[in-house]
Amino acid sequence: MAWITWRQHRLTLAGVGVLLGAAAAYVLVSGVRMHHAYAAALACHPASSDVCHQVVNDFFNKYASDAAVAAGLLHVTPAVIGAFAAAPVLAREFETGTFRYAFTQGFGRVRWTIAKLAPLAVLVTAASAAFSVLFSWSYEPIIGTRGYGPGPLEPSVFDLRGVTFAAWTLAAFAIGAAAGVFIRRVIPAMFATLAVTAGLTLGTGLYLRRHYEPALVSTDPSIAPPDWVLSQSWTKDGKPASLFMIDGALHPVGVQALTLERFQPGPGTPDNFDPVQYLSHHGFTQVTTYQPASRFWTFQWIEGGWLLAVALILVAVTVWRVRRRAT
Amino acid sequence: MNVVETHRLGKSYGRTWALRDCTLAIPAGHVTALVGPNGAGKTTLLNLVVGLAVPTEGEVAVLGGRAAGSPAALDGIAFVAQDTPLYRSLTADDLLHMTRNLNRHFDRSYARGRLTELGIPLRRRAAKLSGGQQAQLALTLALARHPRLLVLDEPMAMLDPLARHDFIAMVMTAVADDGVSVVFSSHVLTELERVADHLILLSGGRVQVAGEVDDLLASHRVLTGPTAEIDRYVDRLDIVHARRGAAQANLLVRTSATTDAAPPGWRAHPVGLEELALAYLREPGAAALPGPTRGDNIEPLGVTP
To answer: Is B287 part of any domain?
Structure first.
């Protein structure tokens, strides 16, 4: 049976290999360059001098935005693997009618389904796990450095590192397998896999992940990345301060408050003006809701855990469906 | 032993019953033709027999009481589906290798020998084979498992007369050599008599006729006589179907001890299988379910002809 799985899906596996291989090559090359540049920036001596500050600043300006773009593109990888490697496995059998051959052999259709899905799932999950180790190493310099780059919990990088990238790949694979058995046509099943996986990724990043543990609330104005800042607001005399109040308080120095977190200096604003400090001195307190960066591994295991559960449930549903309804 | 036994078997898709109240026994060692118009439930019945479909109601057992679709059942049944679906990108040799891997028994030298005889190149992809060759390849894969029951769904629908002849010859060789039981569905009636010795006629999801061909032929006759006289005999004769011409009528009648003699002025002829099947297909209300070989574990039917 292993021979059959290999014979029928070697092209798919080669495709996954090429996709992850190309991404890995890019991440490796840019990672090596980044590590060299970072080592050079850190070697600057004395570290507290203006020149060295400038060198470090230049390093982040040069690499952080590139890394963010690359990371954004890498987010689609699990969905693509699910759509191309998993969705057709069963959908093609139903679409071409070959399930009538495959499911009536002595091997049995439940065993056949498991013997196909399990090795493919293990292979793509292992490949993406290896890939995320590489990614984690490569982007180490720019993740989690205070004041620069994205924090480790931020949606742009969180699910590319640790255990979650592999878990997302496995979940997308299971979504693809289930789409294949329920939709029974290759192209619609692939699109459904892409849509569901993308929706789940977005929903998790935007709404779900921040609730894995109760967020911390602090009035410490220095809270900033790498901690994951969820929201900031202002209070005065124990009551919430409106944007109108903030704007009014900043009016004498010519600063306009665009939101509670963004301030636009005007022509009359003094140089090096710090609006947060200014507002603090005028009786306002900044309240920050955030997830500390130290929760990275807790969050990784929570997300990895529920994704694994979702994947197992979907595979079980897929097998149940194959068992119940083949025609 | 019965290779197929069903008891009040039914399968519905949504609100539509594809097959209903189907009680059958197909004894081993027969070539059974399953005939009926399109939509009669032939494919549904075969899917239930090979375990591809799960019954909505009733029971289906194969190979002497094994649950359809169970590992023990799949082990002894080979199925060639309608339009003989094969993995198009695989070569004949790959397909042999695959089928061998998916089954406990696979006679590779038989399969290779057959394909060589048939002139099917082992290295050619299934997609590049002609329709006839694809059907032959699918049949070879099935027969090389040396099944006890071979199930064929409309095996000859896509074949030209020559390929159909070769296909039938291959099946009949396996019947003679291996003693394999065969159940095949068809809406081609012309070659039934040469191939089948057991007939099941489905109509509108129900079994209309079931029995051994010899018994069916012996228990039916065609009577030819004046159309004007039909009404006099309607009560006396067990008429399945009457074809009335202007002067002369043909009646297909079931014979029995009391109605054996042809009425005066009428001539009796033996009936052919095709004619018999057509007569029943034209009279969906008539049924012939003698059930001479019904299995012990199946209750007698309450159906009256």
So the answer is: no
For residue A38, being part of any structural domain is answered with no
Which among A4, A326, A327 has CB closest to B98?
A: A4
Distance CA A132, CA A163 (A): 8
pLDDT digits (tens, 9 = 90+) for A259-291: 887 888 888 788 788 888 888 888 888 899 999
Confidence band, pLDDT 50/70/90 cuts, at residue A120: very high
Contact B85 A97 (CB under 8 A): yes
Taking the C-alpha atoms of residue B175 and residue B30, their distance in angstroms, rounded to an integer, is: 9
Dist CA A92 CA A184 (whole Å): 7
pLDDT tens-digit profile of B258-280?
556 677 888 888 898 888 999 99
Question: How many domains does the structure of chain B reveal?
Answer: 2
Whether residues B111 and B28 share a domain: the answer is: yes
A87 Cβ contact partners less than 8 Å away, ≥ 6 residues apart: A176, A177, A179, A180, A186, A189, A190, A192, A193
Distance CA A159, CA A299 (A): 10
Q: Is B85 on the interface with A (CB under 8 A)?
A: yes
Residue B296 has pLDDT above 50, yes or no: no
Could you tell me if B125 lies within 8 Å of chain A, comparing CB atoms?
A: no
Tokens (6 digits) for B176:
């003679």
Residue-number span of the structural domain to which A25 is assigned: 2-31+74-212+295-324
- The whole domain housing B227 covers 220-282
Domain of residue B192, CATH code: 3.40.50.300
| ipTM value for the complex | 0.87
Nearest to A104 among B79, B82, B97 (CB): B79
